[in-house]
């Protein structure tokens, strides 16, 4: 199940505000301050640390079955999407990635697959990354802009079945153009990184 996306962004505070204004809760903030990575998690708010020169590595926002993360970057760059899988599915998908000659980076907590479409796919077996695994609030679909054809076919090979939650258009950049999020705002909204969110 598709549950996650990650951006690097110069609009860190604005991105947090957008998601919290739309019902997400901030689970954690990790940033580099005076040479060390430190936590600035809630109940801390931006007024508590805005004057400090913190380089945020990750801020994690959660709502229902959704986990959105972002960290500081000089410009808005879409990095990866994440899927929940069980361990058997993970093995199957990783083998398919190897067969496609895609790089597989297995970690203790998560596995990343590098696609030839200039973004990565995270495989996650831990369900403690969301507030609820049964909630109706979930990502129904992501519409990606990419620079070459073939994504949907390759995802079908990777997962061994069609991945209906990912659609693509060909364009000049690689990003998420639209996210269909069930039980979001009734009006389409655009986050600070250009993701148009539809209910």
TrEMBL record:
Family matches, as InterPro entries: Glyas_Bleomycin-R_OHBP_Dase
UniProt protein name: VOC domain-containing protein
Species classification: Bacteria, Bacillati, Bacillota, Bacilli, Bacillales
